[in-house]
Amino acid sequence: MEAIFEGIAKLIEQYEQQNMLNLIYLVILMIFVGVELISHVPSVLHTPLMSGANAIHGVVLIGAIIVMGNASPDDTLSLVFGTLAVFVGTLNVIGGFVVTDRMLEMFKKKPKGEKAS
Amino acid sequence: MMPYMEIGYLVGSVSFVVGLKMMGQPDSARKGNLVAAFGMAVAVIAALFFNREGFHVINNLAYIVAAIVAGTVIGTLMAKRVQMTAMPEMVSLFNGMGGLSAALISIIEWRHLLHEAANPEAMTNLPAVSLGMYIPVIAGLIIGTISFVGSIVAWGKLNGKIGDFRFPSQQIINAVVLVAILGVAYLNYNEFNATQSSLYFYVTIGLAIVYGLLFVFPIGGADMPVVISLLNSFTGVAAACGGFLYENKVMLMGGVLVGSAGTILTVVMCKAMNRSLMNVLIGMAGGNGGGSSTSASGGSVREVQATDVAIMMKYASKVIIVPGYGLAVAQAQHVCHELENLLEAEGVDVKYAIHPVAGRMPGHMNVLLAESNVEYDKLIEMEHINPEFATTDVVLVVGANDVVNPAAKTDPTSPIYGMPILDVDQSKQIIVLKRSMKAGYAGIENELFFHPKCGMLFGDAKASLQKLVNEVKAL
């Protein structure tokens, strides 16, 4: 696991020589990280985990912000669509995290002898 | 020059990985969610106020902030107000919003691409558009649209607004639509020019909408969690497309992480139901098995009274409660816990048997029962509770059906054949709380109800449990 983390950190360090190939390395590494993270999770946590992952892909909001930043102030269509994109992206992020928090709030008691299935 | 933006994105990316890791363990799960949320906030601030050179307030900030504020208020209200039972719908709806956002980004970027292509300088060298730009834009559009439309259909199905919808040779039509989407996307790239391409582009959007509808329509309601999980990973991939487009690492990492984690989660969930992903996607389970297996169950059903059940349970030494979706819709988790406390006070050993797919999502029952303060170690997973049924006096099935259907073991023609079930028929007495004899989500008859050891207590789960609580108190 730690080796994977270090690998990612290194890739980000090489930011200056950023190119498409670099991004592809990153994609492949992240696929492994994602698989590794989820594989041994007890089924009890599947719903909150799905909901948490749902909130994380709300990162698309960053893209919506970038697109808005590039839009010229007289390009009405882009502004309308961009504002809508920021709005629904925020819904995804905030709604996702709040719902997940509400679910996890209910697991107050520490589970005893939780076994990975 | 300080790379504040890069640092912000780095903090965001790392906290996604760490947060997701923490969410995989019950005792750190809540903190993990907060870590991921914190990372998201840092990344958003970095995007708003910094660029590669340093501090830089982004254009159109007023619109962006207004949209973020509106989204925050409405999102928080929606998420806070939703009933625990409707949680799966909510997750699906938010997922659709992410897909819509990705699709909208692609539409705007598409217009930029067209604009560049209209530039005479660009027209001279063919192809007019770079593949590195075209693929992320078009893939983000297609995947985002499918995810948006599919999630909305899933949302409608879960809250009962949309029914199952199948027609013959649907799989073939789905495949044709998918090939058509890719074909049009390829043609569009090959013959890129400002006039024709817009048409191709609209056709692509239209086909993606059709595919999103066809993709989710035939899938039975019980399989909805699997589909939501899959659509969740789709949206992740759509976000990753944005990461390629803007060479933005936080989008790329967050998107790919969710894409791969979501796919694995989908596979793990399918395994819990002993179904293959293909099987789920084609929509095998559901209505069609209903007619054939009814004939097998000719016996009569024994109806019981709450008083008898109360006596039975009070003088039992061990009771296992099997909760299902019926418990969730009736909001009966609190009264269920009350019954459990009463019986415990009488010295009865009470446990809950949790099937991995009971309810509408894996873990749905755990969340619901935890809400009413049922102790965590009373919720026993299937493989650990099954050996205990033989020594159990009374099994109380509350609104569960398919997860206790013996046809999964005995009838190879049944659509749920092969799914692991709770062996409730091993116990001395079975009491089923159910509204009517209607079939469960898989749409098939349950032989268990005709079993000589089984008694039916008809009525709404909450009302029936309340009656039982009153009777136990009165004894």
Textual characterization of the structure:
The complex is a heterodimer of chains A (117) and B (475). Chain A is mostly helical and 117 residues long. Chain A has two domains: 1-39; 42-117. Chain A has helices spanning 2-13, 20-38, 46-56, 60-70, 76-105. In chain A, helix 1 (2-13) packs antiparallel against helix 2, helix 3 (46-56) runs antiparallel to helix 5 (76-105) and helix 4 (60-70) runs antiparallel to helix 5 (76-105). In chain B, strand 4, helix 16 (364-371) and strand 5 (379-381) form a beta-alpha-beta unit. Chain B has three domains: 1-81; 84-282, no CATH class; 297-474, Rossmann fold. Chain B has helices at 4-23, 29-49, 61-81, 87-118, 120-124, 131-158, 170-190, 194-216, 224-245, 249-272, 277-282, 290-294, 306-314, 325-329, 333-345, 364-371, 382-385, 407-410, 461-474, and strands at residues 50-51, 54-55, 318-323, 349-354, 379-381, 394-398, 429-434, 454-458. Chain B contains 19 helices and eight strands. In chain B, 60% of the residues lie in helices and 7% in strands. In chain B, helix 1 (4-23) packs parallel to helix 10, helix 7 (170-190) runs antiparallel to helix 8 (194-216) and helix 9 (224-245) runs antiparallel to helix 10. The longest helix of chain B has 32 residues, at 87-118. In chain B, the strands form two sheets. A six-stranded parallel β-sheet of chain B has the order 5-4-3-6-7-8. Chains A and B meet through helix 1, helix 2, helix 3, helix 4 and helix 5 of A and helix 1, helix 2, helix 3, helix 4 and helix 9 of B.
